């Protein structure tokens, strides 16, 4: 049922509660094999969906962006691994990366590091007390994520090429900010089409509103799957 190309599309279930999310999963049917549950849905009853999705044979990405003392991150990651989830995010700080890698060890859970939030620019980093600009901090954290032995990184389409060159083929690169040609940008500023993101080195594309807010979400998902299948043929 899972084919590697179909699993490249991850649909962000950015919906307020599990009832609305269930209805969307039903509409999307076989067009989607991989779902992302973020903080809004997780804290709105979304954890109940994890088991349902797993039983339906879907992959799950829990986008919880963990960050705490190492002991807590390790224990939380181990709990998440027991839920049968495939991806979880953590902020890419060295202690957090190492702790999450320990927590996921021996399980099928893959840890993804969030390098620098895409809502931050260079001046936000100065205000927060950093000496590096965004590009330098992304590169540093990508190297540290690789050293920690986690599975991959979350990056904007803009950072894909340079990061792929830096980390080689070892890490999964997962990118939001994907917009089919002609689609509304919403509040995304640095976007790429599905084909461009894949050509720049992405392994998985996270797509929310272009699918879940489309008049026909099933058709919108199938159109992206077709584009992925053509690029990855
Ligand atoms: O609706 P849209 O396709 O813009 O959704 C993208 C998804 O990726 C959302 O769940 C959003 O929170 C997430 N995301 C993002 N940019 C980041 C990290 C996560 O858009 N830097």
Q: How many domains in all?
A: 1
Q: How many beta-strand segments?
A: 8
Give the uncertain stretches in residue-range form: none
**Per CATH, which architecture?**
Alpha-Beta Barrel
CATH fold naming? TIM Barrel
Beta strand %:
15-25%
- What small-molecule ligands were found? cytidine-5'-monophosphate
Determine the number of helices (DSSP H or I, runs of at least 4 residues).
Answer: 10
Task: Describe the largest sheet.
Answer: 8 strands, parallel, barrel
As a whole number of angstroms, the C-alpha radius of gyration is 17 Å
Spatial sequence of strands, sheet with the most strands: 1-2-3-4-5-6-7-8
**What is the level 1 CATH name?**
Alpha Beta
Average per-residue pLDDT, rounded, comes to 95
